[in-house]
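[09:14] KT: can someone run the structure on this one? pasting the chain below
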Amino acid sequence: MKRVLLTIGVLFTSQSFAAAPVFCSSPTMAYQSGCTSTCAAIAAAGSYELAAGSYATCEGKITKKMVDVRKIELGKTEIGNESRCTIWEGDDLQFDLSGNNGDFSSKYPIVLSKCVVGTTYDALYAVVGKYEEITGESVFPDGTGKKMRTTSTFGAKDTGHDNTTANWLDSGPALDSGFDDTSKYYTYPPGWSGWAYKKLGTKASDTDLSSASNEVMYWDEYKTSHSGNTDTTTRPGYNCSPSDSNECYASVSGHDDQYAGVIPSSNIQGLPITLKESDETLDLEWVRFSPVRGVNQYKGLEVLWHNDSGTLKYVGIGSSSDGGYLEISNVRSNEGL
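[09:31] RB: done, structure tokens below
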């Protein structure tokens, strides 16, 4: 049985494959380049500061993060000459990325028979299920001891994803008195752009959820990519980052619950490779970093907060990567397997 070790959190990010999560030594609500501030660390340090009327994010703790992979292809990043070939396809790579387990197996083998000998491949193309099933929680960063948790109000899967984000994204400013459009499950603060958050309720709230349970929420990774990847011309059929023609996503024809993404060699150790006549299989592994790194240090759930006239309220959540990298090795024949 060929072992396939994968995670989705890093598959569609542009981070370096060697970068483990780094946590801020002086955590704040303000964005700090190169490090992560968790809500718990801000509370413990007593460093909460957010001006009235402002919005900010910090990391909460992910408790469940189910994702699945459907197909993996070798290919090139060269636009118009992608030379894609399927090396794995199956239905048994669904796993939980909230724990420390990094070993995930598939009964379906990796095969290179559909690829072209002599071709140099510098990318993977992956098809994944677009919905992540997640649960999580966070203490309030202001040190009050209250908790927010994932909620069921907008937790279900919703339809639609296109570049006209107004069709599915509520960008109305009435976050305290109530969102403008309760038929839409995602929002972002007035004046913000480039990312979206799934609503936690019909309005921003400071209700303490300490005694509640973490409810399942289905995070639509493909939908939220449209709020930042707005270039639809550079790589035909894909939505790409305006600054990176390889940070791209595409719908899968006939499968509204799936999407495809480009994974360039910058995210994969072992690429590029040039296939030889004897090459029939390879090892593909996910070198994973634990989502819990230490006391008040964890990755996986981004929480959006709002200071409503001096009262801190939670607004929404997003799924964030816990770090790691893919590694291709041992390109070989099947002889002896």
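[09:33] KT: thanks! Residues 1-18 have pLDDT under 50 and may be disordered.
[09:34] RB: yep, looked fine to me
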